[in-house]
Amino acid sequence: GTYGIFFDNTYYSHFDFGKTNADQYSFGAVDGDLNYYFIYGPSPIEVLTKFSKLVGTIPLPPRWSIGYQQSRWSYYPESKVRELAGTFRQKKIPCDAIYLDIHYMDGYRCFTWDTSRFPNPKKMISDLSSDGFKVVTIIDPGIKNDATYWVYQSGIKGNHFVKYPDGEYFIGTVWPGNCVFPDFTRGDTRQWWGSLYQILIESGVKGFWNDMNEPSVFDSPNKTFDLTVIHDGEGYKSDHREYHNIYGMQMVRGTYEGVLKIKPNERPFVLTRANYAGGNRYSATWTGDNISSWEHLEMAIPMCLSLSISGQSFVGTDIGGFVGNPSGELYTRWLQLGVFLPLMRTHTEINSKDQEPWSYGAKYEEINKKFIELRYQLLPYLYTQFYKASVNGTPIIRPIFFDYPDEEDNYLNDNEFLFGEALLVAPVLGEGENKRDVKFPTGDWYNYWTGEKYTKTKYLRFDSPIENIPLFAKAGSIIPTQQIVQSTDEAPIDPLTIKIFPSDKSSTILYEDDGNSFEYKNGYYCLRKISLETKLRFNKIFFENPVGKYRPNDRTIMIELYDSFKPNSIKINNSEIIDNKDKWYYHDRDRMLTIKFIDTFEKILIEIKE
């Protein structure tokens, strides 16, 4: 059986998983209540589902935020940002978001624009938007201690900044120099903070990146607030020892709720570096300032998996590494991993070399383009995984043991993982490696690239040149995919391609909505069950009537049935389709049957007989 323990204590905590005593786990905190929850499974997925009911699940994100995102510290001036966007479109490499780091601000003052670098941000963002790009801006908690600065003036007037017990403001040094810091544990302060985003939203900014919110302070011995600083705590005043660990969560709460109030029917996208249990209701999370090294590439997998199965399922890592300069090989291997993380973002530090998909020569550019395109092809599948996470807390990525808790030899497998319930990913993690050993969980698996089936196989070694990584579909998987687009705004899904890797009996769901608004809460979504039944040389594929009031645009559905046989007859709703050039085609070499028809959004029964 499986159980979970949620230690709900915000003070400085410790967890000892057998280091002091191999026969004993322990946890505790320096102060506060002994407040923890024991959550019995008995399966890992049930533990997380029950935990998610306690602290909340992730909201459905805007669809654009699960596309590819490009960032660095920093893209400026405006001409550089336009050149970056133009290069993506000219090279036909898909991208949905461009980030602006601290250099877009006037002297690092939050909620301002440097008008010498960005003379007309509204026009620039509008032009980028018309080409399918969303702009995400960074916002830090440190507010410059400047009596002429409007945010500082407003914060002082509203009593929004943290103070020492004697009433003096806490001053810490961050990018703008001496700063004061909002007390996000206070409801009025969060409302004030959220209202400040009006100026950025009016400029067209769609996403907000809350950084440095551990909180980070440069000149303090412990790199954060003085521990004697007092927080309001919604009337439960206490010092920073108690509120440090939820400072970042309460910051993104203020951001999310404020942006939502300004744009009430548009899903906010917020990204944070610091969070707490339940903070997944307000923001995505990434793993922070990593290093461009093969060791940090390998570390990215267990880090993201640990966050994912702890409720922070919208998670990612800086592709290529933040500190330093990756080789073309390292960047490409990292990007291949990033395709299968819920958040897919490249990011690098100031003064580093260019770190875009085309920055390492034509060979790597072609490979990087292919894998970013794969991300976009998988968006219908990935968006459905986000739907499951929003309803039940089901993690989008998870370690092998999570779905196979009886297989003890996979308990410590932290270099392979599951992407949703259908796909097994085995990234290449070593310099110069062109082969990869794969440990398969129980069952039959298909090579996603070739359709080859592996029956009751435990270990195999695969050729894994830089152009590829091992990727496998579980037998019984039904994976919806789409055509390649340059951004999620570009076109409706057409065709919708359903890849079926058969077993005796299997089913899945496909979730769709408008990808941006909250109308799905009013029933405007399209939820469809798709199932397969195989008996000897007879396949039945069944599309149930959709649930919900939303309907995508008219489109073609392509069925790709792997490990198939050449049919003698194919019927759709009892009408035989005879034209095997336009309606269906059998690929002898790889035993894959393709069937093409128009989606009527009604019950569809496809019968395939040898």
Describe this structure in words.
The protein is an alpha+beta fold and 610 residues long. Helices cover 23% and strands 25% of the residues. The protein has twelve helices and 37 strands. The strands form nine sheets. It has a nine-stranded parallel β-sheet with strand order 16-15-14-11-7-6-5-18-17.
Shape: globular
Rg computed from alpha carbons, rounded to a whole number of angstroms:
25 Å
In percent, how much strand structure appears in the residues? 25-35%
Mean pLDDT comes to 96
Instruction: Give the fraction of residues assigned to helices.
Output: 10-25%
Number of DSSP helical runs:
12
Number of strands: 37
Sequence of strands across the biggest β-sheet: 16-15-14-11-7-6-5-18-17
**Estimated structural class:** alpha+beta
> What does the main sheet amount to?
9 strands, parallel
Ends: how far apart?
44 Å
Low-confidence parts: none
